[in-house]
């Protein structure tokens, strides 16, 4: 397995993950901009429309059929938050040419469809299709509404507004229903032009090494944009710790309260922190699972997750109203115990195996390895899963203790149940 990365200039970079055992290939084109209350909704809606058609294949049916004829290839859109930034774009997947009947070359055809969706979209009077605009706008609104109805996701999203108040990371990765409904087709045309002219652009190809012609096609189409004056992005911007922990509460008609706690740290080694987070609440044998959930029965769930781009660890939990204070205090107590080294060698070693097994499984998929190295790019590194596991296995008790001691409580946000719902969500 090999990883190579080229800076093409103008904020455009090309990454290549190659492993001869891969039977399929993935091409991903990402446009990265600072998040805002409206940019995420625009990006999400824009690329969901672009994935439906292009000028040569002017309907979703025509594009889908053309992709299906290429041995079930696909074009899809994505939009997600990356710390203070939004990464959005299109990707396509197809089987490697060496695995087609008679070794038919389909890779260039699939990539040509992908590139046309971006550079030659289907237009009506200079604007994106009204039919697909209305359809995808409704789908986006439905997805946002569904996320509100999922009270666990809702609690985390609302908590982020307080955790990262005043930072771009506070905004949702899909915006609000109001944001989505206020977008016009003119807005999307302007947004596409803005992204092409101003966004940091990450192109990645994950394959068996047979995609040289595709790669040339991609570079040729992006060549005009390599002369832009685009500043590089610093993805890791630790969120500042509040002078005093912030507490907020809202009431909802649900039977089970949701509590989100945020802890912040400037600890430098993110992989030691990831290992600690696994020990703390990221595994089914973690400190929070064994003590807060199983031993004391203070919550239904209480996993921890580390956002390395913001230096923030979030613990979200489902709790009965009567246990809210006790659960909060016990979670803080478990962090203090970790900082004092009150954890077993067995927990440390099991956590190393748990996280390394997860990391090593990425080798099995071209898509996973593509995502792996995309994350490496945000950290300014190019470590393989093997190299990271070697680092993790060398982490000591003292490092974990120091890491735990660096975290401070920043925010506690609670969606308190009123008990009026038919069932907990």
Provide an overview of this structure.
This protein has 425 residues and is of the alpha+beta class. The protein has 2 domains: 2-225, 2-Layer Sandwich (Cytochrome Bc1 Complex, Chain A, domain 1); 246-417, Cytochrome Bc1 Complex, Chain A, domain 1 (2-Layer Sandwich). The chain has 15 helices and 13 strands. It has helices at 39-50, 60-69, 107-119, 130-149, 151-163, 177-182, 185-198, 212-222, 270-282, 287-295, 324-339, 345-360, 366-379, 385-393, 397-405, and strands spanning 2-9, 12-18, 24-34, 74-82, 85-95, 123-124, 127-128, 200-207, 246-252, 257-264, 304-307, 312-319, 408-417. Strands 1-2-8-3-5-4 form a 6-stranded mixed sheet, with helices on both faces. Helix 9 (270-282) crosses helix 15 (397-405) and helix 10 (287-295) runs antiparallel to helix 11 (324-339). The radius of gyration is 23 Å and the shape is globular. It starts with a strand and ends in an 8-residue tail after the last strand. Mean pLDDT is 95; it is low at 421-425.
Class of secondary structure makeup: alpha+beta
Counting structural domains, the number is 2
As a percent range, the share of helical residues equals 40-55%
Rg is 23 Å
The CATH first-level class of the largest domain comes to: Alpha Beta
- Secondary-structure element string: EEEHHEEHEEHHHHEHEEHHEEHHHHHE
State the CATH topology of the largest domain.
Cytochrome Bc1 Complex, Chain A, domain 1
CATH architecture of the largest domain: 2-Layer Sandwich
Q: How would you name the oligomeric state of the polypeptide chains in this document?
A: single chain
Main-sheet strand order equals 1-2-8-3-5-4
The percent range for strand residues is 15-25%
Q: How does the overall form come out from the CA principal axes? A: globular
Count all strands and give the number: 13
**Helical segment tally?**
15
Distance between the termini: 43 Å
Largest pleated sheet: 6 strands, mixed
On the 0 to 100 scale, the average pLDDT is 95
The CATH H-level homologous superfamily of the largest domain:
Metalloenzyme, LuxS/M16 peptidase-like
Low-confidence stretches: 421-425
């Amino acid at each position: 397995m090999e990883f190579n990365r080229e800076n093409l200039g103008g904020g455009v970079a090309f990454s290549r993950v190659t492993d001869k055992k891969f039977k399929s290939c993935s091409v991903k084109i990402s446009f990265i901009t600072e998040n805002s209350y409206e940019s995420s909704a625009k990006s999400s809606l824009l690329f969901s429309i672009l994935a439906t058609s292009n000028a040569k294949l002017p309907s979703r049916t025509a594009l889908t059929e053309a992709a299906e004829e290429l041995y079930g290839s696909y074009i899809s859109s994505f939009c997600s938050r990356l710390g203070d930034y939004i990464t959005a774009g299109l990707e396509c997947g197809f089987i490697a040419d060496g695995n087609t009947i008679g070794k038919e070359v389909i890779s260039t055809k699939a990539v040509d469809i992908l590139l046309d969706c971006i550079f030659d979209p289907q237009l009506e009077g200079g604007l994106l299709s009204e039919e697909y605009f209305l359809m995808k706008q409704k789908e986006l609104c439905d997805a946002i509404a569904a996320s509100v109805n999922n009270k666990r996701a809702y609690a985390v999203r609302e908590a982020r507004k307080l955790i990262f108040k005043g930072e771009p990371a506070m905004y949702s990765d899909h915006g609000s229903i109001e944001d989505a409904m206020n977008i016009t087709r003119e807005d999307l045309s302007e947004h596409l032009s803005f992204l092409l002219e101003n966004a940091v652009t990450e192109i990645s190809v994950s394959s068996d090494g047979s995609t040289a012609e595709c790669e040339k096609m991609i570079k040729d189409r992006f060549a005009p944009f390599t002369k832009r004056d685009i500043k590089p992005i610093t993805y890791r911007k630790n969120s500042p710790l509040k002078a005093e922990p912030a507490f907020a509460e809202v009431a909802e008609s649900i039977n089970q309260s949701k509590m989100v706690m945020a802890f912040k740290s400037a600890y430098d080694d993110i992989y030691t922190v990831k290992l600690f987070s696994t020990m703390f609440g990221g595994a089914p044998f973690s400190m929070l699972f064994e003590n807060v959930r199983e031993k004391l029965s203070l919550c239904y769930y209480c996993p921890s997750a580390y956002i390395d781009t913001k230096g923030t660890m979030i613990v979200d939990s489902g709790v009965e109203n009567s246990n809210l204070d006790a659960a909060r205090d016990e979670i803080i107590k478990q962090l203090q115990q970790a900082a004092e080294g009150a954890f077993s060698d067995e927990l440390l070693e099991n956590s190393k195996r748990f996280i390394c097994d997860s990391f090593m499984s990425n080798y099995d998929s071209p898509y996973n390895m593509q995502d792996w190295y995309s994350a490496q790019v945000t950290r300014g590194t190019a470590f393989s899963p093997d190299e990271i596991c070697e680092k993790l296995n060398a982490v000591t008790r003292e490092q974990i203790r120091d890491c735990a001691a660096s975290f401070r409580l920043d925010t506690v946000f609670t969606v308190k149940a009123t008990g009026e719902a038919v069932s907990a969500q």
